[in-house]
Design brief:
It is a single chain. The strands form five sheets. Strands 10-11-12-15-16-19 form a six-stranded mixed β-sheet, sandwiched between helices. Strands 1, 13, 14, 17 and 18 form a five-stranded antiparallel β-sheet that branches. The longest helix is centred in the N-terminal third of the chain and has 28 residues. The N terminus is likely disordered. The protein is built from 13 helices and 19 strands.
Length: about 450
């Protein structure tokens, strides 16, 4: 046993000496070697080092991993150490990505990301099992079933959370403001998302909710605005808990409201990755007053839209600071069944500021919650008394309660619903003020 240990140590020492001698020789000859040759020599030396380490691990590692397994682990370590979004995808992970791209899959309905090396919920997708269970943006996932998420990659976590519809999963999370971890028991389901829907607020405010940026978002919003153009005097664009999606849809959506100027630019290491997206006058369909709602669950494409509209002075941004994902990833296949997802550029808003790790700070910051009102049920003026009592009698005679009708009507947002959402209520108050100013 001692001889074996000495032999291993001796072998490693020999490798170290060999590398040191090679480095010394390269250093002595560096003055006479062209720069290109020196770079190539350094590259070969580094590859030789990697090969030697790989050989040592393959021969002496206690678990006896195959060379294929070691290469996969090496690639995973390489990509995950670049940034939080770059990753190596083996066959299973790559297949999962393809399934997600198809738009329908079994899962929970949450978008996750890495924040301070912790698996964090960017946003629950509206109407999905995770949303209904009560998961919130900012929740840190500690365990998936009984498996700790420490040192787990995003792709591994997503693979664990996806599964056959109607099967259960337990998530243990820690939430800001909560003293103890919270456990969620969730039943997976087919995740289909209604990306765009609209409601009316009062007689003249159009509420447009965008839950994610799929390939039809811009055209759906355009149809909704045109359909309501005669009745609307202001628009509220709700991007809260929107995890992002397609860049071209973010650009096209912004272009509906802006007739000139840069919307967003991306800059990478290679000039080929540098692209600037600008507004076009022909694509603009409205100049109505605009309020944009955001929160910490608004990420990527939704940050581009809200940040561009803010920089171009086209809309008032209301809510909470956004997530801060301003990087560009591309998926590059390396074989028929494998690929890498690599960060190649960063987004920059019209003013030149970056979104990455900073986010968009609202013009008016409003934390989520309900509106706190005193009970005004009996604050009736003398002139209203007779009318009020008469309406109560009529209700007793069988008239429908207007509040109940509106609450079940999916075409409007009622005052009661507004009072349960202080960010939306603040947005409505601002848009009404903007309508008055524009009217003058």
């Amino acid at each position: 046993m001692k001889n074996t240990k000495m032999m291993v140590v001796g072998f490693i020492s020999a490798v170290t000496i060999s590398v040191a001698l090679s480095t010394s020789l390269l250093a002595k000859n560096s003055t006479s070697v062209p720069a290109e040759t020196s770079i190539e020599a350094s590259r070969l030396q580094s590859l030789a080092k990697f090969t030697k380490v790989l050989g040592i691990v393959e021969q002496y590692n206690v678990d006896g991993l195959t060379i294929d397994q070691l290469i996969d682990k090496s690639l995973q370590g390489l990509l995950s150490n670049l940034d939080a979004h770059s990753t190596y995808m083996d066959k299973k992970t790559y297949d999962n990505l393809k399934t997600q791209t198809d738009g329908e899959f079994g899962g929970l309905g949450i978008t996750v990301g890495m924040r301070d090396n912790a698996l964090t919920v960017i946003s629950p997708i509206e109407g999905t099992p995770a949303d209904k269970a009560g998961m919130k943006s900012g929740d840190i996932i500690l365990k998936i079933n009984d498996q700790s998420t420490l040192s787990m990659t995003i792709d591994d976590a997503v693979s664990l959370m996806r599964g056959t519809p109607k099967t259960p999963i337990d998530l243990t999370v820690v939430r800001k403001g909560s003293a103890d971890p919270i456990k969620f028991h969730i039943i997976r389901d087919i995740i289909t998302v209604e990306s765009v829907y609209t409601r009316k607020i009062g007689n003249d405010v159009l509420y447009v909710r965008v839950t994610s940026f799929d390939k039809k978002v811009a055209s759906d919003v355009k149809k909704a605005i045109k359909k309501n153009s005669d009745k609307s005097k202001g628009i509220i664009l709700d991007l809260r808990n929107n995890p992002g999606g397609l860049l071209d849809q973010a650009v096209e959506l912004t272009d509906l409201f802006v007739n000139e100027g840069v919307i967003v630019s991306q800059k990478g290491r290679n000039k080929a990755d540098d692209v600037t997206y600008s507004a076009t006058k022909s694509a603009t369909i409205t100049d109505l007053p605009l309020v944009v709602l955001v929160n910490e669950g608004s990420a990527s494409a939704s940050e581009i839209v809200s940040g561009a509209l803010q920089d171009l002075k086209r809309g008032v941004v209301v809510g909470e600071k956004t997530f801060g994902k301003g990087s560009v990833q591309v998926v590059m296949p390396i074989s028929e069944n494998e690929a890498i997802k690599l960060t190649v550029a960063r987004y920059y808003l019209p003013s030149g500021r970056t979104i990455q790790a900073v986010g968009v700070v609202p013009d008016i910051e409003v934390v989520s919650g309900e509106v706190k009102n005193h009970d005004k049920a009996f604050n009736i003026k003398e002139a209203d008394l007779k009318k009020h009592l008469q309406s109560e009698i009529e209700k007793e005679d069988g008239m429908l309660d207007v509040t109940e009708v509106n609450a079940s009507n999916k075409t409007v947002i009622t005052p009661e619903q507004l009072n349960k959402d202080i960010q939306l209520k603040e947005g409505v108050d601002i848009i009404k003020a903007l309508i008055i100013v524009k009217g003058k």
